[in-house]
Amino acid sequence: MLDLALALSLRYEFQGSQSDLDATLKLLTEALVLCPPSHPERGRCLTELAAAHDSRYKVTGSEHDVNRMIQLSTEALEFHVPGHRWRGPSLNNLANAYFYRHGQSGSPEDLNRTISLYKEALELMPLNDPNRAGYLSNLAASHHSRYKQLGQDEDLEAMVTLQMRSLELRPPGHPHRTASLANLAVAINARYERFGLDDDLEWVIKLHDENLKSCPVDYPNRSASLNNLAASITRRYKRFGSEDDLDRMVELYRQALDLLAPDNPNRDGLLNNLAVALMFRHDRTGLREDLDKMIELHEQALELRPPPHPDRAETMNNLAEALNYRYSQTGSPEDLEKRIELLKQAAELLTSSNTNRSVVLSNLACALDSRYAHSDSPNDLEQVINLHTQALELRPRGHADRGDSLNNLAITLRDRYHRFGSDKDLQHSLRLHREARIEYPQGHPRHARITGAFAASLSCVQDSPARIDELFSILREVSNDFISPLNDTLHCALQWVSYARALNHDSLSSAYEHVIQFLRRYLTIGPTMKHQYDVLLQRAEILSLPMTAAAHAISKADPEKAIELLDAGRSLLWSEMRRFREPLTQLELVDQDLAARFESLRSELQMLSSAESTYDTTSIRVLSGQAEAGSDFTTISYDHLLSRKRKVLQEYEKVLGDIRARPGMEHFLQNLPFSKLREAAKGGPVIVINCSQDGSHVIIIFADRDPTVIALEDDFHTRAIDMQKTYLDALITTKYAENAMKVLGQQLKSIMSQLWTLVVSRIVEELTNSNIPKLSRIWWCPTSALTMLPFHAAGSTREGFLIDSYISSYTPTLKALIDSRRLSAPTVVNRKHPNILVVAQTKSSNLASAGSELEVVRKRLDPFVTCLDEQEATRASVLKNLQSHNWAHFICHGTLSFDPFESALHLYDGDELSLNDIVKAHLPDAKFAFLAACHTAEQGRDSSVLVDEVLHLAGAMLFSGFRSVVGTLWEMEDRDGPKIADRFYDDLLQRECDANERHTEAAQALWSVTKRMKDARFSAARWVNFVHIGV
Questions:
Q1: Residue 247 CB partners (closer than 8 Å, separation 6+)
Q2: What secondary structure does DSSP assign to 769-815, as a single string?
Q3: What phi, psi does 708 have (nearest 5°)?
Q4: What pLDDT, on a 0 to 100 scale, did the predictor assign at position 942?
Q5: What average pLDDT does this structure show over 443-459?
Q6: Which of 854, 1030, 873 shows the shortest CA–CA distance to 959?
Q7: How many Cβ atoms from other residues are within 10 Å of residue 541's Cβ?
Q8: Which tens digits make up the pLDDT trace of 822-841?
Q9: C-alpha dihedral, 751 to 757 to 760 to 764, nearest 10°
Q10: Mean pLDDT of 181-192
């Protein structure tokens, strides 16, 4: 029976079958019953049964197994007196049991007893005993636990030496070599954390990597191997900030967690580790889903580590820090107080020598500092300083986190300087900051963060020219740091602008140029347009930068630079995507192979940027390729999307550098200089209205002369914000009013009159003085709060209307207008009429006039009309047919969404053509689109903070390839559809022009229709509603 049990135990050791372990325990228990105290095999039976409970404990973590091991091993030692050949195994089993119990209770007595028992067992063992390596490893592990408790270097060196000796006894091919590799890696890692030697860190990763490669896919402890390698890569990421390491550690932790059953005793550690990895990623991307997930994971881990679990304090600390991230976004007092309470409890659980104590003290100090910012209590401030001082004392030179403690203490001393004015505190703060920068030099991922804090302290010394020079020197240097998280680098670039403004420093122009150039790089932290939109929402302070930069340039009498800054810094989302569709004609002439390589990369970037992503890691993954028109785009897991986008972007930037190194290609895909931007005015003046708190101006751009600048009133920025609010309130309050169009029209009159008085009348005067003929075309390019307002309708019955003098169009940027004028090789045969696609919902949409409008368009444009009505009008069919038609007319409902990418044109049976669908479509031969639906040129009222991004359906049509688009600013009156369409196409088709350029006459045709409506005294809400965008 005993022999059979041992055979099953051996098979379990190699195959991991739970049934073998259960059978082993059953047989050994029965064998023990058959071996009374006087039986010669009882001692051996006790030892083997204790070892079997040991095996089961490693699977279940059951306290019953630990207690049973202690009971069995203690009795076995009574049989195995000194000199007995089984005494060593019995000592080892008892030591294991006490070690496990220490892991559950944290008892120092259990740990000391463990070390004593392991040492005695090892001394009894022959040097050539095959189990010696395991005994060495066990003793090393117990020293490691005591090192974590007491922090004594003797334990640290003992565990490293013992694990090295253990590995030497298990050469390649040994069945337990993987365990020794992992154990030595843990020991070397502890030494790395103590002394910070990079060679130790690389050694750790090498050991864990060899370990994982040695593990078969079905190896029972593969999860531990994945976790160990991920943990070591996490440490390297903290040291060097490589995003490759960040991607890999998240993936490894997820794989490790997926391999564990819900009741596995190691699950708590993996939950904690994955949460920490997501925290690092959140530092770089700001993704809300990462924040929510890491809080959830830490809460689960804490539930699995009840008192007196030895790692409970670590998990409480990590949960507290996750709550801090949420607090920084929401300002919730509940999150702050919960964070403080968790950290206080964690600090109480840790002894003064615990290696994690410095982390908890530092975080508790930061939490109390956040409370001090609200309470302004001197007691809170002194407590913060005291805690940071204690944390610093626990982090000697060489400690990986010493720079953080130096920086934190320096910040708090600066706070005390601000409160009490002691120059001693400020000088002490500066000394600590300088030491922190030595700990985290250029190339360290925390360099930008601690440099930004140093700059804040330096800015307090404004009477020292040397300190001011140093301030701007370090900010200029760190603003080019691409190793630190981009959020930290952006913060430093914004500091440069802020301090240069405050101190009237001569580097302000350079600061503005740099930060606006940097914004494009900053947006790459979001892998898709949707994520980039969220990034902009989270950093609202950057949205006004282009306007303040332009105001500064104008104050320096440089309106051309102002235009360059505005065009580079506004409409960032569209501009970034538009770069992926720039023609490569010049590059193809220089190097066709390089052009093909670049095209492949940017095509994939475009696909990834418009992809649908999910936080579900089981989603299908797409590496490359273009979806067919009208097909569903595959959903990609966020982990994979982020990793793939970054890798492709790195290669893209490398190839872009190669291209710009070619003679004549130095400015390839660079922001356009004014000499190129002025080409936007070839068809008529472009009127840019810069609305800034630093001064508002009109800049009229002409194709053949210098721009004209008109300075607006000092309070124009405030009045513009008031007009925007009035306009939005009018749209909201009149939506459900009886006779809504009439009521809205009345409220619009005030806004139209204000626009005329404040700005448009002065523009008309200047245009007249510049000899711009009446009824010429003009383009509006307003900024900030003005982007929503109806400039084309400015005026009043008493003062006259702009529409009586000029034909208005809009453009989001000058570059967008230039792109709209770019000629493409026509794929549609030249003919008198365009090839037009009409998409309609004539029966199921509750639009009574939809059928009449469809007939009008068909009558005017037959036989060149393709109609998709009712069930024919699906998302897939519309996208497919748009590829083969150069004009489009939509007759359906349109809706705004809180998420602008979900704003949509409504098709058959609930199907929709969303803004995101339009973005994905690439329609290089499209010319004109009439969106006869509600809200198609209206930006979401809930996201008015991002008005300069011009995220509406008509803007998406312009981006996808249409040169000329008609849209609506609010709900469209159903009865107007047929009459407007009839008069619009009647006017447009009668104009004398090149058939391929007829779309450039759309603005004149729309002007003719809306002017008639105005002259016939239609409600302003009906004729002002229609706007033209593009050429």
A1: 639, 642, 643, 646
A2: HTTPPTT-EEEEEE-GGGGGS-GGG-EETTTEEGGGT-EEEE-S-HH
A3: -105, 135
A4: 54
A5: 96
A6: 1030
A7: 11
A8: 754 444 444 556 899 999 99
A9: 140
A10: 91
For the chain, what is the radius of gyration of the CA atoms?
Answer: 36
From the list 594, 465, 451, 577, the residue with the least C-alpha distance to 526 is: 577
| Residue labelled with tokens 């347009």 | 529
Alpha helices by DSSP H, listed for 355-401, are 357-375, 378-393
**Measured distance CA(14)–CA(457) in Å, rounded:** 61
Residue 982 structure tokens: 């009839």
Coil vs helix vs strand at 700: strand
The whole-angstrom separation of Cα 949 and Cα 941 is 13
Q: Could you tell me if residue 158 is left (phi over 0), alpha (psi between -120 and 50 degrees) or otherwise beta?
A: alpha
For the record, the structure tokens of 568 come out as 């580079």
State the pLDDT at residue 87: 87
Q: Is the pLDDT at 621 greater than 70, yes or no? A: no
pLDDT in tens, 257-300: 999 988 898 899 999 999 999 999 998 888 888 999 999 999 99
CA dist 210 and 881 (Å) reads: 55
| Contact partners, residue 289, CB within 8 Å, separation at least 6 | 615, 638
Per-residue confidence band for 945, with pLDDT thresholds at 50, 70 and 90: low
**Interatomic CA distance for residues 704 and 701, integer angstroms:** 9
How far from 683 is each of 495, 568, 574, 995, CA to CA, in Å? 41, 22, 23, 18
Residue 403: predicted pLDDT: 96
> What are the C-alpha distances in Å from 773 to residues 205, 768, 877?
74, 7, 45
Give pLDDT, residue 941.
59
% of the chain beyond a pLDDT of 90 = 62
Residue 626 amino acid letter? Q
% of residues, the chain, pLDDT over 70: 96
Q: Using CA atoms, how far apart are residues 125 and 134, in angstroms rounded to an integer?
A: 11
Q: Under a CB-based contact definition with an 8 Å cutoff, are residues 941 and 896 in contact? A: yes
Confidence tier at 382 by pLDDT (50, 70, 90): very high
Residue 575 has pLDDT above 90, yes or no: no
Q: What is the pTM of this model?
A: 0.80
- Contact predicate 691/785, CB 8 Å: yes
- SS3 state at 259: coil
Cα separation of 425 and 427, whole Å?
6
Please provide the DSSP assignment of 850-893 as one string.
Answer: HHHHHHHHHHHHTTSEEEEEGGG--HHHHHHHHTT-SEEEEES-
Task: Give the span between the Cα atoms of 209 and 207, in whole angstroms.
Answer: 5
656: number of CA atoms within 13 Å, CB side?
14
Strands 865-869, 836-840: pairing is parallel
Which residues is 894 bridged to in the sheet? 905
Q: Which residues contact 607 (CB under 8 A, 6 or more apart)?
A: 622, 624, 625, 626, 627, 633
**Residues 913-925: what's their mean pLDDT?**
89
Residue type, 755: L
Burial of residue 237 (CB within 10 Å: 0-12, 13-18, 19+) is buried
Name residue 116's beta-bridge partners: none
Helix (H, G, I), strand (E, B) or coil at 684: coil
Alpha carbon 751 to chain centroid, angstroms: 38
Q: Is 686 left (phi over 0), alpha (psi -120 to 50) or beta?
A: beta
The neighbouring-strand residues paired with 104 are: none
Q: Determine the Cα–Cα distance for residues 545 and 565; give it in Å rounded to an integer.
A: 9
pLDDT: which is higher, 524 or 592: 592
The two structure tokens encoding residue 871: 């069930």
CB 585 within 8 A of CB 599: no
Nearest Cα residue to 225 out of 193, 181, 273: 181
pLDDT at residue 13 above 80? no
Annotate 621-640 with DSSP letters as a single string. ---S--PPTTSPPPEEEHHH
Highest-pLDDT range among 218-227, 479-488, 638-647, 999-1008: 999-1008
